[in-house]
Amino acid sequence: MKRRKFLKNSSAATAGLFSASIASAAERLNPDAEDQRSLSIKKYPRVIATWDVPNATAKAWEILEKGGNSLDAVEQGVRMEEADVNNQSVGKGGRPDRDGNVTLDACIMDKDSNCGAVVYLQNITHAVSVARKVMEETPHVMLAGKGAEQFAYENGFKKEDLLTEASKKEWLEWKKTSKYQPIINIENHDTIGMLALDKNGDIAGACTTSGMAYKIGGRVGDSPIIGAGLFVDNEVGGATATGVGEEVVRTVGSFLIVELMRQGKSPQEACEEGVKRILARNSDRPDFQIGFIAMNKAGETGGYCIHPGFSYREFSEEGHTNTASESHIKG
Ligand code: SD4
């Protein structure tokens, strides 16, 4: 039986068991399905990233447009933010922990589910590239702290002081009260999670951050944890997160969103469900921010957050846009 006919027949025969949304998602995720609608949905190459990071998405697009692969696109894209000292949530210039140390978390994942991560990395700007080296040059997935730093030096990365004057000044000011109280959308904004689909329709993702400002020394968030801050599955799509990492870890947020897409939800619906899952565990205190973005294999995208203020950048043949994310709590 032809695949499309099977989908139609089964939904008619077992209404309720095989919902229309699952049928349409199955078609959406199978570009080779005999369905003109799904064939017409092929919105790639495309890159999407958390927050308004035009330099990062433009860099990734430059690679995708030339036919480069999604892994190079996400690595080179997020490196733009790591190098930007004015982004105080990523790489050089990131806000320090409570002791004044800038410590970075990053991960990367490719179309074959290979992945690499570094956590609590100091003195190296491009944590994402160290993560890629871990993925490609070692039998491991994650390196931490001194071991990660040593590995980076052995692979040619240079030692740099990541604490800028601006971040140092803010930290010294913070020390006067020493109150750990992340502020929605202000503190830590711009942690970058990026997903790219290349001309071949292959997906990759990267996520990099200096983590929550003034955290306890040694704290690791969601961003470098595969499944939490980032997850891609080349059969389905990808998702990545920003915000208070502890909450994303508790729900394995990005993996959850990819699995919801596998079950039939659109990227937008999956992000909304991911945020609602987190809120269900925090009904008494939704006073923190989480933002998710997702992209499926057709290049359809979505984003959702708890509080207004989160946005995401996309670059494709349709143009370069910054979209204000819908939020659970209205402004
Ligand atoms: C963390 N998720 O370390 C990161 C912080 C972040 O926007 O994304 N801020 O928890």
UniProtKB/TrEMBL annotation:
- Give residue numbers for the site Cleavage: 190-191
List the GO molecular function terms.
hydrolase activity, acting on carbon-nitrogen (but not peptide) bonds, in linear amides
Task: Give the signal peptide as a residue range, or say none if absent.
Answer: 1-25
Which residues does the entry assign to the active site, renumbered to this chain?
191 (nucleophile)
**Which InterPro entries does this entry report, sorted A to Z?**
Ntn_hydrolases_N, Peptidase_T2
UniProt keywords, alphabetically: Signal
Q: Where does substrate bind?
A: 219-222, 242-245
| A cellular component annotation (GO) from this entry | cytoplasm
Q: Which segments does the entry list as coiled coil?
A: none
- State the PANTHER family in the record: L-ASPARAGINASE (PTHR10188), N(4)-(BETA-N-ACETYLGLUCOSAMINYL)-L-ASPARAGINASE (PTHR10188:SF6)
Q: What is this protein called?
A: Glycosylasparaginase
Which source organism?
Poritiphilus flavus
What lineage is this protein's organism placed in? Bacteria, Pseudomonadati, Bacteroidota, Flavobacteriia, Flavobacteriales
